[in-house]
Amino acid sequence: MANARNSRSNRINPLAHAFVWFYALLLVIPIYFMLVSSFKENTAIFNSPFALPTSLSLDNFVNAWDWAALGTGLVNSVLVTGIAEIITLALAIPAAYAIARSGGRIGGIVEKFFGAGLLIPGFAALVPTVILAIGIHLFHTREFLYLFFPATVLPLSIILLTQFMRAIPAELEESAMIDGASRLRVLISIYIPLTVAGIATISILNFLTFWNEYLFALILAGPDPEVRTAQVALPNLVSQTNTQYGVLLAGGLLTMIPVYVVYMILNRRLEDALLQGAVKN
Amino acid sequence: MAIKSLPDVVVATPQRKSRENRVKPALLGLSLPAILWYLAFTIGPLFAIFYIALLDWPGFIAPSSFVGLKNFQTMFADPVFWQAARNSLVQLAVVLPIMLPVSFMVGYYVSLKPRGHRILRVILFTPALISLAARSIVFLSIFSPTGMLNGLLRGVGLDSLATPWLASQSTALGTVMAVDLWSGIGFTAILFSARLSSIPEEVMEAAELDGAGQWRRMWGIAYPICHDYFGVLLMLQFIWMFFASAGSILLLTNGGPGNSSTTLSFLVYNKAFRESQIGYSQAVGVILFAVGIAGMVLIRRAFRPKY
To answer: Does A109 touch chain B (CB under 8 A)?
Structure first.
């Protein structure tokens, strides 16, 4: 195996190495710039953008936190992400179970329904969604995001989860039902424990989607500091700070921490989740 | 009770004769909440676009009136619409032909597992983790008049090249596209590498024994094997860019200066939320939707599996 790999990777054109690592460098530079600049003042950022900071002052982070009310923003983000995650699972798990086990024509139609949903870009319906929010008196509230965000990820969550559920042998279910277990009982005590990997996959994907969402969060929940999420609060720093890049970038780092914490804990699993999610589209 | 009968209303089908089929819809009742939820928050609003496009509606709290196709007439006579259409076309025509082949090549490189490929994977994943808002403020800091790039150019004596990248008519759209490429290639490359690693070793080895070089093996063997997957990722990036460029443009350039970086997607946002012409905005939305579907069908045709 190791030999085979070596033979496959040998004799790569040096230009290819140079090309790929040059692109990798382009990816790293903005991140490096963000890290070092969040400890610097504007003049230092402009005069020597890549120099290491001379001090590890946390002033920029404190200012970003205060000026953009990032504390409230992060709490709102946690609430929106958490509650939308729970609602998504509550809707997707039973639906995936039903599709996986019903077979037949109607099950196929429901699966196709959500399969087609994968191709519908959420952005298309932005304006009517606002009208819906106004209509049910939830415009500019977090509550509307709780309800709306799950709908945007239902197709992918259901299609992915259905595949995990299909892998469970039907005999398990049949014997449980002969013992008098109800559908719901079967779902809770057989299917959910056996599809934890799938549930984790869609939870990670949805966490990234919900946490990082900008445009819908901005328009539906609005700019009020009490309601807005961290992602909506962050760009406000641009006008507020009169472009003090250090503060701006420090704020950006603060909103990225939760994602990177999850990435560090679930490294491999998160990569797999992203791969599976994209391929299903 | 209601659970048993409602699925038939939603996915109307006459097939309910046998005992077998009667049990299954009961089971499908479990998927009913998800179906209704999705209809209420996605499909319903989507259909509403086509009706709203026929209204004269000057603001969300103002009364609306039916005006037929007047919004479409206004739109087709509006130079801003044509500029947005042109910008969208430029964005797609420049970014996609660079992004997909480059991603494929980088993905092929990673799939060969050369020295350092693990670090490379982590680096390539980075853009997928960063939110639109965080990414945009990083690039605002890089491309602003007193930002990193101009500082860098001045540092190496190239002052003459320094320019307000995001605030100049001639560079705004190009800079937005550069950011698109920055964030799109890495993850797409990882996806290609995952697909390419599933090609059996023997296939590539046989090609190597026949004397095919790395470049020939990449485009002559690996690419045809992944042809349909290439189409899938192309479609993914097409949808994402065509429909959702509004967020990134709102944060980076606000569509300007002038309308030099306004795309169709941004125009939908701008007309509705800045200029309070909701009917007009949704007329653009109808065009966006129709062209988007046509594009998807075309890509699907072009990359249909060949067997």
So the answer is: yes
Contacts 24+ apart (CB under 8 A), B235-238: B235/B296, B235/B299, B235/B300, B236/A278, B236/A281, B237/B95, B237/B96, B237/B99, B237/B100, B237/B184, B237/B188, B238/B92, B238/B96, B238/B295, B238/B296, B238/B299
CA dihedral A8, A13, A16, A18 (to 10 degrees): 120
pLDDT one-digit tens code per residue, B207-226: 888 777 788 888 888 888 88
- Domain tally, chain B: 1
How far is residue B52's CA from residue A134's CA, in Å, rounded to a whole number? 15
Mutation pick from A102, A209, A211 vs chain B, by most beta carbons of B within 10 Å, is A102
Domain segments of chain A as ranges: 2-51, 68-233
Higher pLDDT, A45 or A125: A125
B79 vs chain A: nearest CA distance in angstroms? 22
Side-chain half-sphere exposure of A95, counting CA atoms within 13 A? 31
Q: How far is B77 from chain A (nearest CA, A)?
A: 23
Q: If DSSP codes are grouped into helix, strand and coil, which group holds residue B55?
A: strand
Residue B56, helix vs strand vs coil: strand
Q: Are A195 and A164 in contact (CB under 8 A)?
A: yes
**Is residue B270 in some structural domain?**
yes
**What is the rounded distance in angstroms from the CA atom of residue B81 to the CA atom of residue B286?**
13
Q: What are phi and psi of B65, to 5 degrees?
A: -135, 150
Per-residue burial over A2-26, b if 16 or more Cβ lie within 10 Å, else e, is: eeeeeebbeebeeebeeebeebbee
Task: Using a CB–CB cutoff of 8 Å, tell me whether B198 touches chain A.
Answer: no
List pLDDT tens digits, range B224-254: 888 888 998 999 899 889 988 999 999 999 8
How far apart are alpha carbons A148 and B41 in whole angstroms?
6
Scan for tokens 């701008």, then name that residue: B270
Of B297, B245, B234, B214, nearest to B85 (Cα)?
A: B245
HEC letters along B99-120: HHHHHHHHHHHHHCCCCCHHHH
* Amino acid sitting at position B35: I
Q: Which CATH class is domain A68-233?
A: mainly alpha
Residue of B23, B27, B61, B185 to mutate, testing the A interface (most A Cβ within 10 Å of its Cβ): B27
Range of the domain at B149: 80-302
H/E run at residue B260: none
Torsion angle of C-alpha atoms A236, A246, A33, B160, degrees rounded to 10? 90
Rounded-to-10 torsion of CA B28, B32, B34, B37: 160
What's the predicted TM-score (pTM) here?
A: 0.87
Instruction: Decide if pLDDT at B51 tops 60.
Output: yes
CATH number at B88 reads 1.10.3720.10
Count of C-beta atoms within a 10 Å radius of residue B300:
15
